[in-house]
Amino acid sequence: RRRHTRCSRDWSSDVCSSDLAYGTEEIEYSSTTTDVNIRTYPAAWSIISTKNKSINKIVVKLKLQYSITNTHDSVRVTLHSNNSDSDVPGEIISTLGKVSFGSLETTYQEYELAFDPITISADTLYWIQIAADSVIDTNIINPAVISIPKNTSTGKYFAVTSADTSTGWLVNEDTSAFYKLFSADEDIVAK
After folding, report:
1. pTM value?
2. So what's the pLDDT on residue 22?
């Protein structure tokens, strides 16, 4: 089993601000970014709060290479519990929102998703999962690629679905996707 480590004052191991747990969680990353294609395989990243919090908004980054015919379909973002037997995403807790394929651009853009407040418990591992609906390519020679940025982030976990593992997930330690998570408890936006 892996041991989950984090800064004792906030949700992120890379940003240690005592205000952060009250307003937002915003991860700082290394300068090296890797694109992760979520078209076929959903991805997820871990979150932990040091306090009981009510969250109500998330910002994610997405981009699209090549074009999609079914622009009305979406990328969906969900909150999951942790499967404590294997430390991978477990049962879905709530849908956080969706981004329509038609709004995706060829460079990374931030997409803000607001949702009804959800209470998360202190010192509990959760997962944010992102997955694309089925894609219909405009051009089969250049199939569409829907990507999220993945970066080094100490103490975080990033997972992609995999048929090659017993858990169905391939987990990378010290890695996370870009995101900002906002708390409904206060209107503070800390960076």
Report:
1. 0.81
2. 35
